[in-house]
TrEMBL record, chain A:
One of its GO terms (molecular function) is lipopolysaccharide transmembrane transporter activity. Pfam families: LptC. This is LPS export ABC transporter periplasmic protein LptC. It comes from Neogemmobacter tilapiae. It comes from the Bacteria. GO terms for cellular component: plasma membrane.
Length: 202, 142
């Protein structure tokens, strides 16, 4: 009997929906393919090709760190901007070395370039080196050689130092471990200018 | 007993910069003492002091030098007066310079020798002690 009442509003609506809805679905589906941007499989993984050739030509490490303990127990940690392996060690740029001696004093070295050579256990810093010792002395020199297995740092060229002592210039410098502890020896001609801060004469 | 010595016109401004030159300088990282060695020369204004070795002694607060301990044959010259001794201690701020060990002081013509010479650079005066001997050059000398 229900059907006899002919096409009620409900049936009309259903019949209409049966036509409209699939069309709508079709339209939606087609936007997926026809309207969407063309997908370029190339840029699926974005990578910078700038230093790829560079890296291929010469392998490099960026921001490497190297640390070791010398025979007399002071810890030496080196960090650099980047480093290239070379025979027997590595060559680094923008190097910072921290030497923590067992008596708790910290000396930091920063240098433009560094050659780490593990065969003969030497680290050669060049291109302008700054050293900051524990007692607040700032030393600038041209180049510096540090032994890796024992605490011995030698600056061959002339150095200037700024510190509690005043302004000091010297022909060379050596940080070595004597029996009484570590001594920083400035040599071949030393000149110190100290400005006393005592009371003015009355 | 001691002979008092006047250092005429010797007012020394102890706040002038001190310039130390030497062959080498060893800074002991543990204690921080600094020792200049190898014909060390200290110059402050007109005062010049030379010694075989000078050890710098720090004041309590960092960055201040309290005393210079000189040894290994010290010579001291300032505006016409000169003194020699085995050792000397120069306290920069108070301007006191104590020389010991067969001191020989020459001022112009006169020479005085003794065991210990304490000079106050600020006041420009000094006291020589210990077996003091002096040699006068009579004015009308030959």
């Amino acid at each position: 009997m229900a059907l006899a009442r002919g096409k009620g509003f409900h049936s009309k609506a259903v019949a209409l929906a049966k036509v409209i809805l699939p069309l709508l679905a079709l339209a939606l589906l087609s936007t997926l393919f026809m309207v969407s941007r063309s997908i370029n499989p190339e840029d699926a993984i974005p990578f910078a090709d700038v230093d790829v050739e560079d890296r291929v030509r010469e392998p490099r490490m960026t921001a490497p760190t190297w640390s070791g303990v010398t025979r007399d127990g002071s810890a030496l940690t080196l960090t650099a901007a980047d480093a290239r392996p070379q025979s027997g060690g590595a060559r680094a740029e923008g190097l910072q070395a921290v030497l923590a001696t067992p008596d708790g004093k910290i000396t930091t070295f920063t240098a433009a370039e560094a050659d780490l050579n593990q065969n003969d256990g030497k680290l050669v810093l060049s291109g302008g080196v700054q050293v900051e010792t524990a007692d607040g002395m700032q030393i600038t020199t041209e180049g510096l050689t540090a032994l890796l297995d024992q605490t011995e740092v030698t600056a061959a060229g002339s150095i200037t130092a700024q510190g509690p002592l005043g302004v000091l210039t010297a022909g060379g410098m050596r940080l070595t471990q004597g029996q009484a502890g570590y001594t920083l020896l400035f040599q071949n001609g030393v000149k110190l200018i100290y400005q006393p801060t005592g009371p003015k004469p009355d | 007993q001691g002979a008092s010595v006047s250092f005429k016109g010797l007012k020394q401004d102890t706040t002038l910069p001190v310039e130390v030159t030497a062959d080498s300088l060893a800074v002991d990282q543990a204690t921080g003492t600094a020792t200049f060695s190898g014909n060390v020369r200290v110059a402050q204004g007109a005062l010049v002091m030379t010694a075989g070795e000078i050890r710098v002694e720090y004041a309590a607060e960092a960055g201040k030098i309290a005393k210079l301990h000189a040894k290994g044959g010290v010579t001291f010259a300032n505006a016409g007066d000169a003194a020699e001794a085995a050792e000397a201690i120069y306290t920069i701020d108070s301007g006191s310079l104590v020389m010991s060990g067969n001191v020989l002081l020459t001022q112009g013509q006169t020479a005085i020798s003794g065991q210990k010479l304490a000079i106050d650079l600020k006041a420009g005066s000094g006291v020589m002690e210990g077996r003091v001997q002096t040699v006068f050059q009579p004015k009308g000398g030959n």
